[in-house]
Amino acid sequence: xxxxxxxxxxxxxxxxxxxxxxxxxxxxxxxxxxxxxxxxxxxxxxxxxxxxxxxxxxxxxxxxxxxxxxxxxxxxxxxxxxxxxxxxxxxxxxxxxxxxxxxxxxxxxxxxxxxxxxxxxxxxxxxxxxxxxxxxxxxxxxxxxxxxxxxxxxxxxxxxxxxxxxxxxxxxxxxxxxxxxxxxxxxxxxxxxxxxxxxxxxxxxxxxxxxxxxxxxxxxxxxxxxxxxxxxxxxxxxxxxxxxxxxxxxxxxxxxxxxxxxxxxxxxxxxxxxxxxxxxxxxxxxxxxxxxxxxxxxxxxxxxxxxxxxxxxxxxxxxxxxxxxxxxxxxxxxxxxxxxxxxxxxxxxxxxxxxxxxxxxxxxxxxxxxxxxxxxxxxxxxxxxxxxxxxxxxxxxxxxxxxxxxxxxxxxxxx
Length: 415
Ligand code: NDP
Prior knowledge:
Blueprint: H1 15-18, E1 22-25, H2 30-46, E2 53-58, H3 62-72, E3 76-79, H4 85-91, E4 98-101, H5 103-111, E5 116-119, H6 127-135, E6 139-142, H7 145-150, H8 152-162, E7 165-168, H9 171-179, E8 188-195, H10 205-208, H11 213-216, H12 226-234, H13 236-249, E9 256-260, E10 266-272, E11 277-281, H14 287-295, H15 309-312, H16 326-337, H17 341-357, H18 365-376, H19 389-414
Parallel strand pairs: 1-2, 1-5, 2-3, 3-4, 5-6, 6-7, 8-9
Antiparallel strand pairs: 8-10, 10-11
NADPH dihydro-nicotinamide-adenine-dinucleotide phosphate is lined by residues 26-32, 58-61, 80, 106, 120-122, 125, 143-146, 170, 222, 224-225, 228, 286.
Protein backbone atom coordinates (compact mmCIF):
# COMPACT_ATOMS: atom_id res chain seq x y z
CA UNK A 1 0.00 0.00 0.00
CA UNK A 2 1.24 3.54 -0.77
CA UNK A 3 2.68 5.32 2.26
CA UNK A 4 0.13 8.12 2.53
CA UNK A 5 -2.74 5.63 2.61
CA UNK A 6 -1.73 3.89 5.83
CA UNK A 7 -3.54 5.50 8.78
CA UNK A 8 -1.02 6.55 11.51
CA UNK A 9 -2.95 4.62 14.16
CA UNK A 10 -5.61 2.28 12.81
CA UNK A 11 -7.44 2.25 16.12
CA UNK A 12 -7.51 5.94 16.96
CA UNK A 13 -11.03 6.61 15.65
CA UNK A 14 -12.28 3.82 17.91
CA UNK A 15 -11.04 5.40 21.16
CA UNK A 16 -14.30 7.25 22.00
CA UNK A 17 -16.27 4.08 21.23
CA UNK A 18 -14.04 1.76 23.27
CA UNK A 19 -14.20 4.20 26.20
CA UNK A 20 -17.99 3.95 26.43
CA UNK A 21 -19.33 2.67 29.73
CA UNK A 22 -21.77 -0.19 29.18
CA UNK A 23 -24.71 -1.50 31.21
CA UNK A 24 -26.16 -4.89 30.30
CA UNK A 25 -29.76 -5.45 31.39
CA UNK A 26 -30.09 -9.24 31.36
CA UNK A 27 -26.39 -10.15 31.31
CA UNK A 28 -26.99 -13.82 32.22
CA UNK A 29 -29.16 -14.61 29.17
CA UNK A 30 -28.22 -15.64 25.67
CA UNK A 31 -27.78 -12.07 24.39
CA UNK A 32 -26.20 -10.95 27.68
CA UNK A 33 -23.51 -13.64 27.65
CA UNK A 34 -22.82 -13.04 23.94
CA UNK A 35 -22.40 -9.32 24.68
CA UNK A 36 -19.86 -10.14 27.38
CA UNK A 37 -18.04 -12.38 24.88
CA UNK A 38 -17.79 -9.43 22.50
CA UNK A 39 -16.50 -7.18 25.31
CA UNK A 40 -14.01 -9.85 26.50
CA UNK A 41 -12.72 -10.12 22.92
CA UNK A 42 -12.48 -6.31 22.61
CA UNK A 43 -10.43 -6.16 25.81
CA UNK A 44 -8.04 -8.81 24.47
CA UNK A 45 -7.86 -7.08 21.10
CA UNK A 46 -7.78 -3.36 22.01
CA UNK A 47 -6.64 -3.38 25.65
CA UNK A 48 -8.09 -4.14 29.10
CA UNK A 49 -9.90 -0.80 29.44
CA UNK A 50 -12.24 -1.35 26.50
CA UNK A 51 -15.94 -1.01 27.35
CA UNK A 52 -15.77 -0.43 31.13
CA UNK A 53 -18.88 -1.94 32.70
CA UNK A 54 -21.29 0.14 34.75
CA UNK A 55 -23.97 -2.42 35.65
CA UNK A 56 -24.89 -6.07 35.03
CA UNK A 57 -28.35 -7.41 35.88
CA UNK A 58 -30.12 -10.77 36.14
CA UNK A 59 -33.40 -12.05 37.55
CA UNK A 60 -32.40 -15.16 39.56
CA UNK A 61 -29.14 -16.56 38.22
CA UNK A 62 -26.89 -15.54 41.14
CA UNK A 63 -24.10 -17.94 40.30
CA UNK A 64 -23.53 -16.71 36.77
CA UNK A 65 -24.04 -13.04 37.66
CA UNK A 66 -21.45 -13.29 40.45
CA UNK A 67 -18.98 -15.08 38.14
CA UNK A 68 -19.48 -12.38 35.48
CA UNK A 69 -18.92 -9.62 38.06
CA UNK A 70 -15.72 -11.21 39.40
CA UNK A 71 -14.32 -11.51 35.88
CA UNK A 72 -15.57 -8.30 34.25
CA UNK A 73 -15.61 -5.82 37.17
CA UNK A 74 -18.84 -3.81 36.80
CA UNK A 75 -19.44 -1.02 39.30
CA UNK A 76 -22.79 -2.52 40.32
CA UNK A 77 -24.81 -5.73 39.93
CA UNK A 78 -28.58 -6.02 40.29
CA UNK A 79 -30.63 -9.13 40.93
CA UNK A 80 -34.30 -8.64 40.04
CA UNK A 81 -35.61 -11.16 42.54
CA UNK A 82 -34.92 -9.44 45.87
CA UNK A 83 -34.98 -12.75 47.76
CA UNK A 84 -31.69 -13.65 46.03
CA UNK A 85 -29.81 -10.60 47.28
CA UNK A 86 -28.15 -12.26 50.32
CA UNK A 87 -26.81 -15.07 48.12
CA UNK A 88 -25.45 -12.57 45.59
CA UNK A 89 -23.87 -10.40 48.30
CA UNK A 90 -22.23 -13.51 49.81
CA UNK A 91 -20.92 -14.60 46.40
CA UNK A 92 -19.32 -11.17 45.89
CA UNK A 93 -17.93 -10.75 49.42
CA UNK A 94 -14.46 -9.24 49.36
CA UNK A 95 -15.00 -7.41 46.04
CA UNK A 96 -15.87 -3.72 45.65
CA UNK A 97 -18.88 -4.47 43.43
CA UNK A 98 -22.05 -2.82 44.75
CA UNK A 99 -25.02 -5.21 45.08
CA UNK A 100 -28.62 -4.05 44.57
CA UNK A 101 -31.89 -5.98 44.27
CA UNK A 102 -35.51 -5.67 43.17
CA UNK A 103 -37.37 -4.19 40.20
CA UNK A 104 -36.65 -0.59 41.25
CA UNK A 105 -32.94 -1.37 41.32
CA UNK A 106 -33.19 -2.55 37.68
CA UNK A 107 -34.49 0.92 36.84
CA UNK A 108 -31.72 2.49 38.90
CA UNK A 109 -29.15 0.45 36.98
CA UNK A 110 -30.51 1.85 33.72
CA UNK A 111 -30.35 5.39 35.12
CA UNK A 112 -26.67 5.15 36.04
CA UNK A 113 -24.42 7.07 33.66
CA UNK A 114 -23.43 4.47 31.09
CA UNK A 115 -23.27 5.84 27.54
CA UNK A 116 -24.49 2.48 26.21
CA UNK A 117 -27.25 0.26 27.62
CA UNK A 118 -27.78 -3.21 26.17
CA UNK A 119 -31.45 -4.12 26.60
CA UNK A 120 -31.39 -7.93 26.86
CA UNK A 121 -34.04 -8.73 29.46
CA UNK A 122 -36.68 -11.00 27.96
CA UNK A 123 -40.29 -9.80 27.63
CA UNK A 124 -42.19 -6.80 28.94
CA UNK A 125 -40.18 -7.04 32.19
CA UNK A 126 -37.52 -5.08 30.30
CA UNK A 127 -39.84 -2.24 29.43
CA UNK A 128 -39.40 0.11 32.41
CA UNK A 129 -35.58 -0.11 32.69
CA UNK A 130 -35.06 0.15 28.92
CA UNK A 131 -37.31 3.20 28.80
CA UNK A 132 -35.27 4.86 31.57
CA UNK A 133 -32.15 4.44 29.45
CA UNK A 134 -33.90 5.85 26.36
CA UNK A 135 -35.23 8.82 28.35
CA UNK A 136 -31.80 9.91 29.53
CA UNK A 137 -30.40 9.82 26.00
CA UNK A 138 -28.27 6.69 26.28
CA UNK A 139 -27.38 4.70 23.19
CA UNK A 140 -29.72 1.74 23.63
CA UNK A 141 -28.61 -1.48 21.98
CA UNK A 142 -32.03 -3.01 21.69
CA UNK A 143 -32.42 -6.79 21.76
CA UNK A 144 -35.67 -6.77 23.75
CA UNK A 145 -38.17 -6.49 20.91
CA UNK A 146 -41.15 -6.91 23.25
CA UNK A 147 -40.46 -3.36 24.57
CA UNK A 148 -40.98 -1.70 21.22
CA UNK A 149 -43.88 -3.95 20.26
CA UNK A 150 -45.74 -3.18 23.49
CA UNK A 151 -44.76 0.48 23.76
CA UNK A 152 -43.57 1.60 20.34
CA UNK A 153 -44.82 5.16 20.48
CA UNK A 154 -43.55 5.60 24.05
CA UNK A 155 -40.05 4.57 22.97
CA UNK A 156 -40.10 6.63 19.82
CA UNK A 157 -40.99 9.77 21.78
CA UNK A 158 -38.50 9.06 24.59
CA UNK A 159 -35.60 8.64 22.19
CA UNK A 160 -36.65 11.70 20.13
CA UNK A 161 -37.04 13.94 23.21
CA UNK A 162 -33.71 12.91 24.71
CA UNK A 163 -31.90 12.76 21.36
CA UNK A 164 -30.93 9.24 22.30
CA UNK A 165 -30.33 6.45 19.81
CA UNK A 166 -31.96 3.05 19.52
CA UNK A 167 -29.61 0.63 17.74
CA UNK A 168 -31.29 -2.65 16.85
CA UNK A 169 -29.60 -5.87 17.93
CA UNK A 170 -32.12 -8.21 16.35
CA UNK A 171 -30.15 -9.56 13.37
CA UNK A 172 -32.80 -8.61 10.79
CA UNK A 173 -33.11 -5.05 12.09
CA UNK A 174 -29.38 -4.65 12.48
CA UNK A 175 -29.16 -5.66 8.82
CA UNK A 176 -31.93 -3.22 7.82
CA UNK A 177 -30.22 -0.47 9.80
CA UNK A 178 -27.15 -0.98 7.61
CA UNK A 179 -29.07 -1.34 4.32
CA UNK A 180 -31.60 1.47 4.59
CA UNK A 181 -30.71 4.74 2.89
CA UNK A 182 -32.34 7.13 5.35
CA UNK A 183 -31.52 10.10 3.07
CA UNK A 184 -33.90 8.86 0.36
CA UNK A 185 -36.62 6.92 2.08
CA UNK A 186 -39.03 7.72 -0.76
CA UNK A 187 -36.99 5.35 -2.95
CA UNK A 188 -37.45 2.40 -0.59
CA UNK A 189 -40.08 0.06 -1.99
CA UNK A 190 -39.92 -2.82 0.46
CA UNK A 191 -38.07 -4.17 3.48
CA UNK A 192 -38.11 -7.97 3.62
CA UNK A 193 -37.17 -9.70 6.84
CA UNK A 194 -35.98 -13.28 6.54
CA UNK A 195 -37.28 -16.04 8.81
CA UNK A 196 -35.53 -19.37 9.30
CA UNK A 197 -38.94 -21.03 9.55
CA UNK A 198 -37.94 -22.57 12.89
CA UNK A 199 -37.76 -26.27 13.76
CA UNK A 200 -41.25 -27.04 12.34
CA UNK A 201 -40.88 -25.31 8.98
CA UNK A 202 -41.94 -28.42 7.06
CA UNK A 203 -44.26 -29.98 9.65
CA UNK A 204 -47.99 -30.50 9.16
CA UNK A 205 -50.46 -28.99 11.65
CA UNK A 206 -51.32 -32.53 12.85
CA UNK A 207 -47.68 -33.17 13.66
CA UNK A 208 -47.27 -29.76 15.32
CA UNK A 209 -50.19 -30.52 17.65
CA UNK A 210 -47.99 -32.91 19.64
CA UNK A 211 -44.87 -30.70 19.82
CA UNK A 212 -43.16 -30.64 23.23
CA UNK A 213 -41.35 -27.67 24.81
CA UNK A 214 -38.04 -29.54 24.36
CA UNK A 215 -38.65 -29.80 20.60
CA UNK A 216 -39.79 -26.18 20.32
CA UNK A 217 -36.71 -24.68 22.02
CA UNK A 218 -34.30 -26.66 19.79
CA UNK A 219 -33.78 -24.10 17.03
CA UNK A 220 -31.93 -25.37 13.92
CA UNK A 221 -29.70 -22.29 13.45
CA UNK A 222 -29.66 -20.10 16.56
CA UNK A 223 -28.97 -20.77 20.24
CA UNK A 224 -31.37 -18.52 22.16
CA UNK A 225 -33.40 -18.19 25.35
CA UNK A 226 -36.55 -20.31 25.74
CA UNK A 227 -39.15 -17.62 25.03
CA UNK A 228 -37.70 -16.36 21.74
CA UNK A 229 -37.03 -19.97 20.66
CA UNK A 230 -40.74 -20.78 21.02
CA UNK A 231 -41.60 -17.51 19.25
CA UNK A 232 -39.33 -18.59 16.39
CA UNK A 233 -41.07 -21.97 16.24
CA UNK A 234 -44.56 -20.36 15.99
CA UNK A 235 -43.22 -17.57 13.72
CA UNK A 236 -44.65 -15.06 16.21
CA UNK A 237 -41.06 -13.87 16.46
CA UNK A 238 -41.18 -12.73 12.84
CA UNK A 239 -44.53 -11.05 13.46
CA UNK A 240 -43.11 -9.16 16.44
CA UNK A 241 -40.17 -8.20 14.22
CA UNK A 242 -42.49 -6.72 11.57
CA UNK A 243 -43.97 -4.48 14.27
CA UNK A 244 -40.48 -3.70 15.56
CA UNK A 245 -39.37 -2.66 12.05
CA UNK A 246 -42.44 -0.45 11.73
CA UNK A 247 -41.60 1.30 15.01
CA UNK A 248 -37.84 1.59 14.55
CA UNK A 249 -37.72 2.61 10.89
CA UNK A 250 -41.12 4.22 10.40
CA UNK A 251 -41.88 1.82 7.54
CA UNK A 252 -45.52 1.59 6.48
CA UNK A 253 -47.02 -1.88 7.17
CA UNK A 254 -47.55 -2.61 3.46
CA UNK A 255 -43.85 -2.03 2.76
CA UNK A 256 -42.83 -4.73 5.22
CA UNK A 257 -42.59 -8.34 4.16
CA UNK A 258 -41.31 -11.74 5.31
CA UNK A 259 -39.57 -14.49 3.37
CA UNK A 260 -38.55 -17.88 4.72
CA UNK A 261 -34.84 -18.57 4.29
CA UNK A 262 -33.91 -21.73 6.15
CA UNK A 263 -30.15 -21.11 6.26
CA UNK A 264 -30.36 -17.77 8.21
CA UNK A 265 -27.47 -16.25 6.30
CA UNK A 266 -29.33 -13.42 4.55
CA UNK A 267 -30.97 -11.39 7.33
CA UNK A 268 -32.78 -8.63 5.47
CA UNK A 269 -33.40 -7.41 1.92
CA UNK A 270 -34.19 -3.82 0.99
CA UNK A 271 -35.75 -3.17 -2.42
CA UNK A 272 -35.26 0.23 -4.04
CA UNK A 273 -37.23 2.05 -6.75
CA UNK A 274 -34.57 1.40 -9.40
CA UNK A 275 -34.91 -2.39 -9.05
CA UNK A 276 -31.87 -2.82 -6.81
CA UNK A 277 -32.25 -5.23 -3.92
CA UNK A 278 -29.62 -4.88 -1.22
CA UNK A 279 -29.03 -7.82 1.09
CA UNK A 280 -27.11 -8.23 4.32
CA UNK A 281 -25.30 -11.53 4.91
CA UNK A 282 -23.47 -12.94 7.88
CA UNK A 283 -23.14 -16.25 9.69
CA UNK A 284 -26.07 -16.84 12.06
CA UNK A 285 -24.26 -15.51 15.14
CA UNK A 286 -25.69 -12.77 17.36
CA UNK A 287 -22.17 -11.56 18.14
CA UNK A 288 -22.17 -9.81 14.74
CA UNK A 289 -25.15 -7.47 15.41
CA UNK A 290 -24.04 -7.04 19.03
CA UNK A 291 -20.59 -5.93 17.83
CA UNK A 292 -22.18 -3.54 15.37
CA UNK A 293 -24.26 -1.96 18.13
CA UNK A 294 -21.39 -1.68 20.62
CA UNK A 295 -19.07 -0.15 18.04
CA UNK A 296 -21.60 2.07 16.26
CA UNK A 297 -20.96 4.17 14.19
CA UNK A 298 -17.68 2.32 13.62
CA UNK A 299 -16.98 -1.37 13.20
CA UNK A 300 -15.00 -3.24 15.82
CA UNK A 301 -13.22 -6.59 15.79
CA UNK A 302 -15.57 -9.37 16.85
CA UNK A 303 -15.40 -13.02 17.92
CA UNK A 304 -18.40 -13.75 15.67
CA UNK A 305 -18.25 -16.71 13.29
CA UNK A 306 -17.09 -15.89 9.75
CA UNK A 307 -19.44 -16.67 6.88
CA UNK A 308 -18.16 -19.27 4.41
CA UNK A 309 -20.43 -19.29 1.35
CA UNK A 310 -18.58 -22.09 -0.44
CA UNK A 311 -19.12 -24.31 2.60
CA UNK A 312 -22.80 -23.30 2.73
CA UNK A 313 -23.23 -24.23 -0.95
CA UNK A 314 -26.79 -23.06 -1.52
CA UNK A 315 -29.50 -20.78 -0.18
CA UNK A 316 -33.27 -21.26 -0.40
CA UNK A 317 -36.20 -18.83 -0.19
CA UNK A 318 -39.94 -19.51 0.12
CA UNK A 319 -43.14 -17.72 1.13
CA UNK A 320 -44.33 -18.15 4.72
CA UNK A 321 -47.36 -20.38 5.29
CA UNK A 322 -49.92 -18.30 7.20
CA UNK A 323 -52.22 -21.34 7.67
CA UNK A 324 -49.72 -23.50 9.49
CA UNK A 325 -48.24 -20.50 11.33
CA UNK A 326 -51.27 -18.43 12.42
CA UNK A 327 -49.20 -16.35 14.89
CA UNK A 328 -47.58 -14.60 11.93
CA UNK A 329 -51.02 -13.79 10.53
CA UNK A 330 -52.20 -12.44 13.91
CA UNK A 331 -49.14 -10.24 14.26
CA UNK A 332 -49.57 -8.90 10.73
CA UNK A 333 -53.17 -8.00 11.51
CA UNK A 334 -52.04 -6.19 14.68
CA UNK A 335 -49.40 -4.34 12.68
CA UNK A 336 -52.13 -3.11 10.32
CA UNK A 337 -54.51 -2.23 13.17
CA UNK A 338 -51.91 -0.37 15.24
CA UNK A 339 -53.32 1.39 18.29
CA UNK A 340 -53.57 -0.94 21.26
CA UNK A 341 -53.38 -4.17 19.23
CA UNK A 342 -49.58 -4.76 19.38
CA UNK A 343 -49.55 -4.30 23.18
CA UNK A 344 -52.36 -6.86 23.60
CA UNK A 345 -50.72 -9.24 21.13
CA UNK A 346 -47.43 -9.14 23.00
CA UNK A 347 -48.95 -9.61 26.46
CA UNK A 348 -51.17 -12.51 25.34
CA UNK A 349 -48.25 -14.17 23.59
CA UNK A 350 -46.03 -13.94 26.67
CA UNK A 351 -48.71 -15.65 28.78
CA UNK A 352 -49.40 -18.29 26.13
CA UNK A 353 -45.72 -19.14 25.59
CA UNK A 354 -45.13 -19.38 29.33
CA UNK A 355 -48.12 -21.71 29.64
CA UNK A 356 -46.82 -23.87 26.80
CA UNK A 357 -43.36 -24.08 28.39
CA UNK A 358 -45.07 -25.15 31.63
CA UNK A 359 -47.04 -27.80 29.64
CA UNK A 360 -50.42 -26.29 30.52
CA UNK A 361 -51.39 -25.82 26.86
CA UNK A 362 -50.27 -27.43 23.62
CA UNK A 363 -48.13 -25.79 20.92
CA UNK A 364 -51.11 -24.95 18.70
CA UNK A 365 -52.85 -23.49 21.76
CA UNK A 366 -50.45 -20.52 21.70
CA UNK A 367 -52.06 -18.95 18.62
CA UNK A 368 -55.55 -19.78 19.90
CA UNK A 369 -54.96 -18.00 23.23
CA UNK A 370 -53.54 -14.95 21.46
CA UNK A 371 -56.46 -14.81 19.02
CA UNK A 372 -59.08 -15.28 21.78
CA UNK A 373 -57.47 -12.51 23.83
CA UNK A 374 -57.35 -10.12 20.88
CA UNK A 375 -61.01 -10.88 20.07
CA UNK A 376 -62.21 -9.98 23.57
CA UNK A 377 -60.82 -6.47 23.37
CA UNK A 378 -63.49 -4.56 21.55
CA UNK A 379 -62.74 -1.75 19.20
CA UNK A 380 -59.01 -2.50 19.19
CA UNK A 381 -58.68 -0.41 16.10
CA UNK A 382 -60.23 2.59 17.81
CA UNK A 383 -58.10 2.17 20.91
CA UNK A 384 -55.65 5.06 20.99
CA UNK A 385 -51.97 4.19 20.74
CA UNK A 386 -50.65 4.20 24.33
CA UNK A 387 -48.31 7.16 24.70
CA UNK A 388 -47.08 6.71 28.28
CA UNK A 389 -45.73 3.83 30.29
CA UNK A 390 -48.64 3.69 32.76
CA UNK A 391 -51.18 3.23 29.94
CA UNK A 392 -49.04 0.50 28.39
CA UNK A 393 -48.66 -1.32 31.70
CA UNK A 394 -52.39 -1.09 32.44
CA UNK A 395 -53.29 -2.53 29.05
CA UNK A 396 -50.54 -5.15 29.32
CA UNK A 397 -51.92 -6.29 32.72
CA UNK A 398 -55.51 -6.44 31.41
CA UNK A 399 -54.45 -8.51 28.39
CA UNK A 400 -52.40 -10.84 30.59
CA UNK A 401 -55.40 -11.37 32.87
CA UNK A 402 -57.63 -12.28 29.90
CA UNK A 403 -55.00 -14.56 28.38
CA UNK A 404 -54.49 -16.27 31.75
CA UNK A 405 -58.24 -16.95 31.97
CA UNK A 406 -58.16 -18.56 28.54
CA UNK A 407 -55.09 -20.67 29.32
CA UNK A 408 -56.79 -21.77 32.56
CA UNK A 409 -59.88 -22.84 30.58
CA UNK A 410 -57.76 -24.61 27.95
CA UNK A 411 -55.71 -26.40 30.61
CA UNK A 412 -58.96 -27.40 32.40
CA UNK A 413 -60.37 -28.88 29.19
CA UNK A 414 -57.16 -30.83 28.54
CA UNK A 415 -57.04 -32.27 32.11
P1 NDP B 1 -32.78 -15.30 27.93
O1 NDP B 1 -33.98 -15.96 28.47
O2 NDP B 1 -31.63 -16.15 27.53
O3 NDP B 1 -32.23 -14.21 28.99
C1 NDP B 1 -33.09 -13.30 29.60
C2 NDP B 1 -32.35 -12.39 30.56
O4 NDP B 1 -33.32 -11.58 31.23
C3 NDP B 1 -31.60 -13.14 31.68
O5 NDP B 1 -30.51 -12.37 32.09
C4 NDP B 1 -32.66 -13.21 32.79
O6 NDP B 1 -32.09 -13.37 34.08
C5 NDP B 1 -33.30 -11.84 32.64
N1 NDP B 1 -34.69 -11.82 33.10
C6 NDP B 1 -35.64 -12.77 32.89
N2 NDP B 1 -36.81 -12.40 33.46
C7 NDP B 1 -36.59 -11.20 34.03
C8 NDP B 1 -37.41 -10.32 34.79
N3 NDP B 1 -38.69 -10.59 35.08
N4 NDP B 1 -36.85 -9.17 35.25
C9 NDP B 1 -35.55 -8.88 34.99
N5 NDP B 1 -34.73 -9.68 34.28
C10 NDP B 1 -35.24 -10.83 33.80
O7 NDP B 1 -33.26 -14.41 26.72
P2 NDP B 1 -32.48 -14.04 25.37
O8 NDP B 1 -31.12 -13.52 25.70
O9 NDP B 1 -32.62 -15.13 24.38
O10 NDP B 1 -33.38 -12.84 24.83
C11 NDP B 1 -33.36 -11.57 25.44
C12 NDP B 1 -34.14 -10.60 24.55
O11 NDP B 1 -33.45 -10.45 23.33
C13 NDP B 1 -35.55 -11.10 24.19
O12 NDP B 1 -36.42 -10.02 24.15
C14 NDP B 1 -35.38 -11.69 22.81
O13 NDP B 1 -36.56 -11.61 22.04
C15 NDP B 1 -34.30 -10.78 22.24
N6 NDP B 1 -33.49 -11.41 21.19
C16 NDP B 1 -32.77 -12.52 21.48
C17 NDP B 1 -32.02 -13.14 20.51
C18 NDP B 1 -31.16 -14.34 20.82
O14 NDP B 1 -30.43 -14.80 19.94
N7 NDP B 1 -31.19 -14.87 22.02
C19 NDP B 1 -32.01 -12.64 19.11
C20 NDP B 1 -32.77 -11.42 18.95
C21 NDP B 1 -33.49 -10.84 19.94
P3 NDP B 1 -31.88 -14.87 34.69
O15 NDP B 1 -30.81 -15.50 33.87
O16 NDP B 1 -31.48 -14.63 36.10
O17 NDP B 1 -33.20 -15.57 34.55
